[in-house]
Amino acid sequence: MTAVLPLSADAAALPQEDAQPGRWRRMPPKAKVGAVLLGLFVLAAIIGPLVAPYDPGYQNPAPGLSLHAPYGAHLLGTTQTGQDVLSQLLTGIRLTGELAVIVGVVATALSVIVGVSSAFLGGVWDELLSLFSNVFLVIPALPLLIVLLGYLQTKGQDATILVLSGLGWPWGARVIRAQTLAIRNRDFIAAAQETGEKSWRIIAFEIVPNEVSLIAASFVNTVLYAIGASVALAFIGVADLNSWSLGTMLYWAESQQALELGAWWWFIPPGVVVALMGAGLVLLNTGIDELGNPRLRDATSASRIAGHWLPPADPTPVLAEVSQYRGKLAGFVHSFSRTSLLDETEKGQLR
Amino acid sequence: MSFILRRLTFYAVAAWVALTINFFIPRAMPGNAVQSIMAKFPDLQPSAYRALEAMLGVGHPGSIWHQYGSYLVDVAHFNFGTDVTQYPAQVSTLLGESIPWTLTLVGTATVIAFLIGTGLGIAAGWRHGGALDRALPGLMFLQAMPYFFFALILLELFATKLHVFPLGQGYGEGLVPGWHWAFIGSAIYHSLLPALTIVLTSIAGWMLQMRNVMITTVGEDYVIAAQAKGLHNRRVIFTYAARNAILPQLQGFGLALGFVVSGALVMEIVFSYPGIGELLLNAVTSNDYPLMQAIFLVITFAVLVANMIIDLIIVFVDPRARAREATR
C-alpha cells in the first residue's frame, strides 16, 4: 500500500469527540465520511464478537455446508470446512482493529518522544536521531518485518505488535521534529523559558498541545500502516494462523483455493473491510489536512475570478526553521540526512 | 561537501545499517534457527549444517567481529550461502533467476503509475473541484486496498470469469525462457494483469500528493502573474506550476518506494509470478532463513539505489540544487 504522506499537516483545529453540532457541520465532507466509516468499524470491533452467530473456528461437519454461497443461516456463506464467514469477519475486525490501534498508540508515542527530544535537544543529538529516523525511512519495512518475525518461534499478536511499533515511528518523528523546531522559536516559548519553566513542563504543556493535530494525523497514518502491514504479513503466513484476523482469513481463503473454487463470498468480504478501513482513515486524514490548509478544500470556498478558480488565501504557514547555530560535528552529520534535502529545497526561493 | 556526495554518504550509511541489522538478527533472536531448519529438513548434509551454523552464528566459530568481517566479505562477493530448501542450490543463483522478473514488472509498472498519477494530479490540482478532483475519494478506496487483494479481484474477473488473462505464472506452459518472440510475447501477456494491479492501486497515492502540492503552487503569486501576462494555459501549467510542484512529489516517490515494492512483492504471490515475492513466500513457509535474509538485503539495496537515482533526477530538474553543485 502506498502511504499518503501528509505534506502539510499543520492543522489548526482537531475534530473532538464532544464537538458541538456547529463544528461537525463545518468539518470537510471527506472527514465526515471517514469518521462515519471508522465509527462503524469501531462499533463492529466492540460488539462484533458478541453478536457473531457462530464460533469462527467451528467446522460444521454437515454435508452441503462446505463452501456454501450466502443464504439465510449463513449471511456471508461458509468456507470449505463449513466455517461461518460472517463470524470470522466480525472476529477479524476486532483482532485487526485492536492490533492497529495499539501499534498506532505505541508508535505515535515513540514518534513524539523522538521528534520532540530531537528538536529540543538540538545539536549532535538532533542530527543523530534524524539520521536514525531517515535511515529507517528508506529501509523497506515489510521484508525487515518478515525476517524479524520469521525468526520468532511464536508469531502471535504480541510479537507482531512489538515489531510493527518498533518500525512504525520514523515518519511521524520527522514531521513532529520539524513542527517542534518551528514552535520552539515562538515568543510564548521564550516567555515560558524566561519565567523559569522547566524544560519538561514546556514540552508537556506548551509544545505538545500545539501539535495535537499533527500527532493525530501521524496516529491515523500509523494505524493505516499497521493494518496494511499486518494483513500482508498474515497473508504470507507470518502470523498466528490459528487466530482469526482479516489477514489470516485471506491467508486461508488463498491457501484453500477460494479463488479457483469461485467462492467470492470467502475472500471478498475481508478484503473489502480492509479497503474500507483504509479509505476511512485516508479520508479522515485528508479532512484534517483540509482543516489546516484551506486551499485544499473543495472548490465551494474558492471564488471564480476572470474564468479561473482562485483558492482562498493561505493562513500563515508554519515552516520548519532549522537552527542556524549548529555546531561543526552536528552540521556534518546533518549534511547527509534526508531532512537536509528537504530543508534546502523548501528554503529560500520557493516562497 | 557537494550535494550529490552528501546524498551518497547517506545511502552508504543506510546500506551499512541494513547490513548490520541483517547480521545481528539471527544472533539476537531467541530460539535456535539451525535446529528448526534441521527439524524441517532432516536429510540435510553435514556440510550444509556447518555452513548454516557459520552463517547464523551458532556454535561461535571465532569472535563476533571476525564473523562480522567475513560476513561483509561474503556479501560483497554476492555469496549468501547455500539454500536449504533447494539444496545444494546457491541462494545467489535463486535470486539471480527471480530478480529480472520482479525488476521488469514492478519497475516498469511503478514508473508508469507514477507518471500517470502525477499527470492526473496536475490536472486535478489545476481544475480544483473539477470532475477529476471529485473522483478522488473513489480512487482513494482503490488505493486503500491491499495490492494482493486487488490482484485477487482482477484474477477472479479477468481470468476465472472472462478468461481474458491467464490465471498466473510468468509465461505459458511448455515455453523455454529465452530471447525469442514466442516467449517474450507470452511473458508480456502474463505480466499485464499484475502490472495493471500495481498501476491501479498506486495511482491514487501519487495523484493525491501531486494534487495537494499543485493546488498550493497554483495559488502562488508567480503563477497568477504568469496568467496575468496572458501566457498560454499549457505553459503556465507545466513550466510555472507543475515544474515547481514536482519536487516534493519526487521526494515522496523515493520515500514511498519501499511500501510500493513490498506491496508488489505480496501481489506477485497471488499471480504465482516467478519473482522475488514468490521466492520470499517459499522462504517463509519453509523457514529458509538464509534466503529470507538475502531477499531482505536485495530489496533494501534496490530501494536505496532507486532513491539515489531519484536524488540525481532532483539535481537535474531543480536548478537550485544544480546551482549549489556548481558553486561549491
Q: Give the biggest sheet of chain B.
A: none
H/E element sequence of chain B: HHHHHHHHHHHHHH
Q: Which structural class is indicated by helix and strand composition of chain A? A: mainly alpha
Share of helix of chain A, binned: 55-70%
Largest sheet of chain A: 2 strands, antiparallel
Biggest protein-protein contact in the assembly: A-B, 81 and 98 residues
Radius of gyration of chain A from CA coordinates: 24 Å
Number of helices of chain A: 14
Low-confidence stretches of chain B: none
Strand-and-helix sequence of chain A, N→C?
Answer: HHHHHHHHHHHHEEHH
- Give the beta-strand count of chain B: 0
What does this structure look like?
- The complex is a heterodimer of chains A (351) and B (328).
- Chain A is mainly α and 351 residues long.
- Helices cover 62% and strands 2% of the residues of chain A.
- Chain A contains 14 helices and two strands.
- Chain A has a two-stranded antiparallel ribbon.
- In chain A, strand 1 and strand 2 (308-310) form a beta hairpin.
- Chain A is elongated.
- Chain A starts with 20 loop residues before the first helix and ends in a 5-residue tail after the last helix.
- Chain B has 14 helices and no strands.
- In chain B, 77% of the residues lie in helices and 0% in strands.
- Classes of the chains: A mainly alpha (351), B mainly alpha (328).
- At the A-B interface, helix 4, helix 5, helix 10, helix 12 and strand 2 of A face helix 1, helix 7, helix 8, helix 9 and helix 11 of B.
